[in-house]
């Protein structure tokens, strides 16, 4: 008797959650096809999208450990953050430990984690990765999908026994689900945006602040955080309402704002670097998506940035905190 053929799983989106999902499915013996709209990020100099570091907790380590990459990512690359370091307006700091037993979370680079998981997925003989594949349409009942190869323009049709959508906040899989009756969905943008800045290493190549902390500048309706990097720099993220971002239109207004709210950060970032980085970027938006009800399809499963309500069948996860790999402050 011929051996039973393994069921086929299609994972759409080879980001952090999609690559981990592909590895987990491969471990269970499925034939996995992983589709990604972008080219291979391991061959790209700059990767568009979010670059804010991950603050990885035990949940994330558990997921990475399940596919054999925890030590490579956390122990060899991660920087332990044993406490929050709170920066007050007067320049004083206060440490607030994460755990009485000395446990900690780890700062890890988002791109590094994604690249390691891609390589791990390739290690499985039953995983095939298809880069430059944009999902155009799918039949959730039949498990049929149509992609466009963005490198060649070729249309590619395929099918799978199970489709898993891990393709981000503006998911094409979810757009296809929206065409189904009784699929109730709501997207709402919060008034706050964020912008990434950077505190460079000191001239002698060291950290400009104590490294084993997640540094936070809480300022009521807005705040700033900084996470340490392997090159001794800090990834800084400024969170505040778009209306405040909109008032900072000149270098003088920006420096005055920082002098009022983050005076100790100016010498850390550097006046000229702060001006150049701020006006070279635009604040990014944050949205909250809600899936209120999902009609169950035979071939579908979805990971997306959403909050399930009323018996929804999906799991959340287009960002790592939703995928269970990232701690949330």
From TrEMBL:
GO terms for molecular function: FAD binding; kynurenine 3-monooxygenase activity. It comes from Scylla paramamosain (Mud crab). Keywords: FAD, Flavoprotein, Monooxygenase, NADP, Oxidoreductase. Pfam families: FAD_binding_3. It comes from the Eukaryota. The keyword DNA repair does not apply. GO terms for biological process: kynurenine metabolic process. Residues 8-203 form the FAD-binding domain. Its cofactor is FAD. GO terms for cellular component: mitochondrial outer membrane. This is FAD-binding domain-containing protein.
């Amino acid at each position: 008797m011929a051996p039973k053929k393994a069921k086929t799983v299609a994972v759409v989106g080879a980001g952090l959650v999609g690559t981990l999902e592909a590895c987990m499915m491969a471990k269970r013996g499925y034939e996995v096809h992983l589709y990604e709209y972008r080219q291979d990020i391991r061959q790209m100099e700059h990767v568009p999208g979010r670059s804010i570091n991950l603050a990885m907790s035990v949940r994330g380590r558990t997921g990475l450990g399940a596919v054999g990459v925890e030590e490579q990512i956390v122990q060899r690359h991660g920087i332990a953050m044993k406490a929050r370091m709170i920066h007050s307006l007067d320049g004083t700091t206060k440490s607030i430990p994460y755990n009485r037993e000395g446990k900690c979370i780890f700062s890890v680079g988002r791109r590094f984690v994604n690249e390691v998981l891609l390589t791990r997925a390739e290690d499985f003989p039953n995983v095939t990765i298809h880069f430059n594949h944009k999902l155009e349409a799918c039949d959730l009942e039949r498990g049929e999908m149509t992609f466009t190869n963005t490198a060649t323009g070729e249309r590619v049709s395929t099918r799978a026994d199970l489709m898993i959508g891990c393709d981000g906040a503006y998911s094409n899989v979810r757009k296809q689900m929206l065409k189904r009756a009784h699929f109730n969905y709501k997207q709402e943008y919060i008034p706050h945006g964020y912008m990434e800045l950077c505190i460079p290493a000191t001239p002698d190549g060291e950290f400009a602040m104590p490294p084993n902390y997640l540094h936070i500048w809480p300022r009521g309706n807005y705040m700033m955080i900084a996470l340490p990097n392997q090159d001794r720099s800090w990834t800084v993220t400024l969170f505040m309402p778009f209306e405040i971002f909109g008032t900072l239109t000149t270098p003088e207004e920006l420096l005055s704002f920082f002098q009022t709210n983050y005076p100790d950060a100016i010498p850390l970032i550097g006046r000229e670097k702060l001006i150049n980085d701020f006006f070279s970027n635009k604040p990014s938006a944050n949205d909250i998506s809600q899936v209120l009800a999902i009609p169950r399809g035979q071939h579908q499963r979805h990971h997306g940035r959403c909050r399930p309500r009323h018996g929804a069948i999906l799991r959340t996860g287009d960002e790592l905190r939703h995928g269970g790999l990232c701690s949330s402050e």
